[in-house]
Here is the input.
Amino acid sequence: MEYCVMYEYDLNDVINDASSVEIYVDGVKEILAPDKADEVKSCIIRMNEGGYEMPGYGVSIDSLTRQELKSGVWVRLVYPERVYRGEIPFESLLIKVDKEYCGYNLMREYEGKYQGRVFYFNLQPGKTMEPLYSLLCG
Here is the structure.
């Protein structure tokens, strides 16, 4: 029997429970130290204040996602075991960080591939991803 964690509602709980955080800048991966990982997770949670989750109509395609990962700034939230949000499984979540974005997709990695339905979070009107971008890129 497989052990898993199931979340029903709060996306911030899912973000906070990531066991490690990786960042990618133009395809170069860095695994963050625990204190820096906590800082990144806290920044995302603060950024989410006043925002709301929207239905995720998009899907990720593994080959395209991996190609996109070679440019720009990304955050990958990694979990110690398979996680379910509702009935949707994942082992990590990938977020593209653009300082002008007013929302973001959370692309699910499941069984080693970024595939299937994504989650989408819309930031509070007037907010952008700039605080997270600045934290990651200084």
The radius of gyration is 14 Å.
